[in-house]
Every structure is written in C-alpha cells, then in structure tokens.
Amino acid sequence: MFHLRRAGPYGPPVLFLLLLVAVPAGAWDLPPDNGTLGREAIAAILAGRDYPETSAYTQRTDFIDFTAHGQRFTQVVVTLTPDRPRLRNGRRIVVVGAEPGSEYGMDFVWTVEGKDGPGVWLARRGITFVALTRVGRWNFLAPTGDGSWEDVPIGERMPIFSRTRRERWSAGDYEVRRSGAAAGTSPSMSAIYRFPKTGTDLEAQMLAATPRVFLEGYRLALEKAIPNRRGAFVLFWGMSTGGASLYPLAKQYTPDGYLGWGTSSTGLAYVNNRALGGAINDPYERMALRVRERGLDDFEVYTKHVDAGTRARWWTMALKSPRFKSTEDAAMQFGAGALTEHAVRLWQSGFLPAADRAGGLAAFMQAMFEPSYPPAALKAVPVLDLNGTEDEALPPSTVDANRRVMEPYAKTYRVGRIQGWHHYLFTQDAIVVVGSVWLRYIESGYFD
C-alpha cells in the first residue's frame, strides 16, 4: 500500500462551508433531457470557474490478493481522499471510475498532457475518487511502482494477473496473429492479436479470468476503498468500456447513481447496436482468450482533431497505459461464441476447483453470460448518459440506441450532450467542463 499527500489551495473552514452551500449559479444551465450544452455555455463554464479547489487530498494504492477458478489474482485500487469532503445529503460524495479499454486506473490521475486527470480535479473539490483497474492491466513489474507499461515494448505486452508473478510473459507463452483489418474498422477489431499457447501458465490464467472475476475484483476494491458505505454517496463512472463492467457490478455493489462520460453500455446494448448497423455476425467473432493490441493506429482514431506533433507527445504518455484488451472483450461485446468457448475450455481444464463445478455445467455457463446483461438492481438507480457530440466511439446515434435498450432497466435515464467534445478527457478544459456539469447534476438532485 502506498500513500501520497497532494496539497491544494484552500481557505479556512468557514470559507469552505460557504463554498459547499453557496456555489454560484453561473451563466449556464444544464441541458434538458436529450439536449446539448452549447458553445456559449461551455465558454461560461471555462470563464466562470464555478467550482474552485477546496481541499488537499491523499493518494493511496491498495493491492488485494484473491483466488478464483484455481488461479491467483491481484486487484489494484487507487483512492484519492480529500481532506475536506464535499457532502450530499450528509454523506461523502464518492466517484468510482472504471478505466477505458486501452488504459488503467492511473489514467484518472494524470492525462496524456502530463497534467492532473479527472480524478484529481474532483478530489481537489472535496470528492473522493476511487480509480479501478481490471485484473491483468497493472504492471506489477514496473520499476516506477505505479503500474506503468512504458518500459515494455507494445508488441510484447500481456496481462499480468497477480503480483506474485516475477517476470514478464515470454514469446514462448503466446502466439501473434494479424487480423487483416485496420484499426477503427470496428470497435472490436485491432490489427494485431495475441493468444496464449495451449498448456502454458498464461493460458490457465486467462481461462480463469472470466467476466465474473473482473467484477469480483472490482467488488473487493470498493469494499476496501469505501469502508463506510452508509456514509458514502457513491456514483459510478465507467469511462468508455469501463461502463460495460460497472453496469453489471450493480448486482454485487449497488451505487446511488451512474455518472456518464463516454460510457459504454452493457454487452446486450452493444450487440443490439452493432446488429442495427448490419454487423449481425459479431457474436461469432474469434475473441476467446484474445489479447487485442491497441497501437498507434487505434490512438489516431481518437486524436484526429489534434496536430501530428501533439499526437506524438500524447502517444508517448499513452504508452504508460497497457494499450491492450484481454478476456473482458467477450462480455463487453456479447461475444456469445467466445463466452461459450471460454466456459467449456475452463470447465474441461484440470485446475478448476470442485466447488466451481458444484452447480453443474448449466449454472457455470449461465454465469459466463450474466455480466453481459443489465442486472435487476439497476431498477433502483438513476442513470446519466453524458457524451460529446463528436465522440468517436459513442456518437449520438449509438447513445440513443443504448438508451432504448437500457432505460427500461433503470430507475430514471437521462441523456446529455456537450457540443464539439470528443470521447476522451485529454485536456484540462475538457475535465473542467465535464466535471462542472457533473457537479451541477449532483446539486440538481437528479441522483437523490
């Protein structure tokens, strides 16, 4: 466990209390449901700075070891705890961030510009931020101790599921295949794939990394980071593919609401949207135990709006992140063929404990598919789906299609858009605007 304390400008306690109860209204309002926050409102937010810093914060990294399907895993959680918490209805506000497909939890702490990330922005305003990292995506061998992958060539990166691992996977543990498709052709496709070789320890680890194991790691992380659930007002934010993990997590750990920014939906909503676009064969794609490299060509899809020099600098910072996806792809994309293959291969393995077989193959198979569906617990939770109108992965049409699938399962469902904004919160202006809009939604009582 590591602790870091970050300072921030803040006034005496009396001033702090005034800031909590007397935030200026500003010259902008939240858009109506399915409405758009326009450029004038964006300018007003950036000029007004309605939410100044009010607190210093402490950064802590925890490692949680657990065993699942006969294999060892280590869940990592980074928590930013403000000295002076912001409250909602007498409870500390906590935002839980699940990382995007190419990144890991530290991307909430810093940006590709090398500046403070959205988690830090919120922590400096009194909001506890819990940054999750899916198992396999933290580099426990990083000399910097921060999980960075920057010293590992991008073509050699494979998931490290446990901190007991003492060396990187070698070329003899996996095989490399080219998809023949260019990045950006489909959200589920990349140019280069890697698969574990039969009989290797890597194969066993990846077989054990089922959709429910990712959720179990998240649950353990939240119980560690939020010891007093009753005293916390918990909001989930799944950044990009992080949303596909946080929606099903409501069954194991129910939040008070879902914040949205660039948030993917459930596997069910994903496969429906792909079918609407004509990609009816996606469920048969070969993705079981697949590691999908997210290289520069993929990064360019999300950075077409910046010049080449800026993109090159950002890419250097982005290489700290894993830049791959692994077995989570199948559940996120409702890869029915892959989920079935994964379940059968794990069931027939020699290391699956007898306790995991106790319910029979039918229950085991159902458990593989369950995280692709919206859980019943969502019916008690308000959902905010906020996106930029220029989102490269989730354009307005996709957001609308996701809503049609998901709204019946939520307590309430509201869509908001920000004019001209893109998928990622790469810049400080993007963080300020989205963070300010979030705080205004919280103050509006939408999540109450």
Lay out the secondary structure:
Blueprint: E1 2-6, H1 13-21, E2 35-37, H2 39-48, E3 57-68, E4 71-82, E5 87-88, E6 91-98, H3 118-123, E7 128-133, E8 174-178, E9 192-196, H4 201-208, H5 211-225, E10 232-238, H6 243-249, E11 257-259, H7 267-276, E12 291-293, H8 296-301, H9 308-318, E13 324-325, H10 328-332, H11 336-347, H12 354-357, H13 360-369, E14 382-388, H14 396-406, E15 412-418, H15 428-443
Parallel strand pairs: 2-15, 6-7, 6-10, 10-11, 14-15
Antiparallel strand pairs: 1-3, 3-4, 4-7, 5-6, 8-9, 9-12, 12-13
Helix pairs in contact: 5-6, 7-14, 11-13
Care to describe what's here?
The chain has helices at about 15-20, 40-50, 120-125, 200-210, 210-225, 245-250, 265-275, 295-300, 310-320, 330, 335-345, 355, 360-370, 395-405, 430-445; strands spanning about 1-5, 35, 55-70, 70-80, 85-90, 90-100, 130-135, 175-180, 190-195, 230-240, 255-260, 290-295, 325, 380-390, 410-420. By secondary structure, it is an alpha/beta fold. The chain has a single domain (about 1-445), classed as 3-Layer(aba) Sandwich (Rossmann fold), CATH 3.40.50. Strands 1, 3, 4, 5, 6, 7, 10 and 11 form an eight-stranded mixed beta sheet that branches. Helix 5 crosses helix 6 (about 245-250) and helix 11 packs across helix 13 (about 360-370). Mean pLDDT is about 95; it is low at about 10-25.
- Gross morphology: globular
Structural class: alpha/beta
Tally of domains: 1
The CATH class name reads Alpha Beta
Average pLDDT rating = 94
- Give helix and strand order, one letter per element, not per position: EHEHEEEEHEEEHHEHEHEHHEHHHHEHEH
Strand content is 15-25%
Radius of gyration over all CA atoms, rounded: 21 Å
Reported for the largest beta sheet, the result is:
8 strands, mixed
The named CATH superfamily: Alpha/Beta hydrolase fold, catalytic domain
* Strand elements, count: 15
Proportion in helices: 25-40%
Enumerate how many helices there are, as a single number: 15
Task: Indicate the low-confidence ranges by residue numbers.
Answer: 9-25
CATH structural architecture: 3-Layer(aba) Sandwich
